[in-house]
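Handout, section 3.2

Students often ask what a structure token actually looks like in practice. Rather than define it abstractly, here is a full record for Peptidase A1 domain-containing protein. The first block is the sequence as you would receive it.
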Amino acid sequence: MRTAVLIALVAACSAVTVKVPTQQTGSLRAKLIREGKYSAFLATQHAARIQQLNSGSQPFLDYYDDFYLGNITLGTPGQPATIVLDTGSSNLWVIDAACNSQACNGYPDSGYTKQKFDTTKSSSFVKETRKFSIEYGSGSCSGYLGKDTVSFGGLTIATQEFGVATHLAEVFGYQPVDGILGLGWPALAVDKVVPPMQNLLPQLDAPLFTVWLDRKLSISNGGSGGLITYGAIDTTNCDSAITYVPLTSKTYWQFALDGFSVGTYSESKKDQVISDTGTSWLGAPNSVVSAIVKQTKATFDWSSELYTVDCSTMQTQPDLVFTIGGTKYNVKSVEYILDLQLGGGKCALAVFSMGSGGFGPTWILGDTFIRQYCNIYDIGNAQIGFAQAHHSF
Ligand SMILES: *[C@@H]1O[C@H](CO)[C@@H](O)[C@H](O)[C@H]1NC(C)=O
């Protein structure tokens, strides 16, 4: 009964909307022209159209210059979540309020509590029967899919499909993370879910986003430390000179690396590399990590299982030099040596080994690289741009 009435109403309404506007516009135009107000009217209409397209930005929350997160809200009314804005994956997921494992609640000694998503408290949430499961380098998560409103950076996606995690790997319980928002390409998305960025594109001035990561030097635990800008190039925090390189794959943000050097070591082997905001450090082949260790005179610290150097050398070690598309990009030691409060005057080399080859990219340019160069993720032109980042220290 109600359905029948509804269908009748909808039919009536759509009949009306087809006819009335054209008639009204015609008579309105005639009226405005008669009164000499037509050009002013057109100008407002034009302005309104321009305003429909926009850009947005949100700060990164900086943990030890090592971990950069962003805030989003989901559902109606909006529930907050602090998530990884991750260019190395393409799905959004948050934690189900119904999950009460230690990983979902956050380990008490981690110092971080979780903001979970309560689907029963969102009037716009639509649960699906489909399941999802994602493997990351650090661990896995799984649960079911659903749809709801998602907002971030002052922008709103009315209907976004995402994962509601009912199982999380232990590692997430130790991180200040309530979920992950993937900014990679659709081909990388699990279950063929359309990534948030693709759903945002129609609203944006330009089909791209800019990542700027700040370097604080002083210890930061969740303070503002960078900016992600959707739909525009960040001209405030990034140098105006941008160099672009084409992508070699539209899965990860992947491109070719032509060579690398540090101190007296240099190599010119062509390799595949990805730009990944969700990886804190620089991932490099074994041989390169060994070279960096040797050139910086780092030692392996067995208690922290990290390569460390004396913190006093933070600003005086040789640059890491990457050759990409014929341009040399220098990452200074102040960017790749981090004070993680290890004690004993020791600072960490923000570098890790990717092993000695195999499938896929052999390098990951994580936050270590992105701190030095703003990355412009240009979806429209399938390219990535680099511009020197301005820092607050
Ligand atoms: C991010 O969210 C947390 C928790 O909801 C809040 O305490 C913090 O102020 C937010 N930060 C920003 C920059 O919005």
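Discussion prompt for tutorial groups: The pocket of 2-acetamido-2-deoxy-beta-D-glucopyranose is lined by residues 59, 71, 80, 82, 224 (CB under 6 Å). How would you have guessed this from the sequence alone?
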